[in-house]
Amino acid sequence: MSTDPNRASRPTLQTLRDAAPSLNPTMQRVAEVILADPLAAGSSSITALAQRAEAAPASVSRLAARLGYAGFPALRSAIALENGRNAQSGWERDIGSAITPSDSSADVLDILAGTAARALRDAVAGIDVDAVERAGTVIA
Q: Is residue 64 a contact partner of residue 72, using CB atoms and an 8 Å limit?
């Protein structure tokens, strides 16, 4: 777990972004690798992450401590948890709470089809048809 009791209230990746400019070059590389692919970082070993950042595993541990974590396993867990929350919020934003465990397969299919249709309508509404036609004319 985190060594800082207030740590859980701050998003891990944002904390890392905020800290990055004040880190030494080696820790900055580690931070960049984490921020470039948080999903991989949340499931990587300390050795694999260190190799991708061209750093020593000890540098990864020091970065975790600098961010307020007891060590890399706690940091990795926080990153993985944040990734999971982001995926869940994406589901809730896209699907909402319309699908429940008691829904039949047919109901789920209807809800997903409606969601896809709504997303398509929203995407089409954002297209400037006149601009597309002008671009087509220029290309032709």
A: yes
Q: Can you state the percent helix, strand and coil of the chain, rounding each to 5?
A: 75, 0, 25
59: which 2 tokens? 């540098």
User: Which pLDDT tens digit goes with each residue over 10-40?
Assistant: 788 888 999 999 999 999 999 999 999 888 8
Rg (C-alpha) for the chain, rounded Å, is 22
Looking up tokens 């401590």, which residue turns up? 65
For residue range 39-90, list pLDDT tens digits in order: 888 888 999 999 999 999 999 999 999 999 999 999 998 888 887 766 555 5
Residue with tokens 């961010």: 67
Give the distance, in angstroms, between the CA of residue 51 and the centroid of all CA atoms in the same chain. 21
Asked if 43 and 37 count as a contact pair (C-beta separation under 8 A), the reply is no
Q: Rounded to whole angstroms, what are the CA distances from 34 to 69, 108, 120, 126? A: 15, 36, 33, 33
pTM passes above 0.70: no
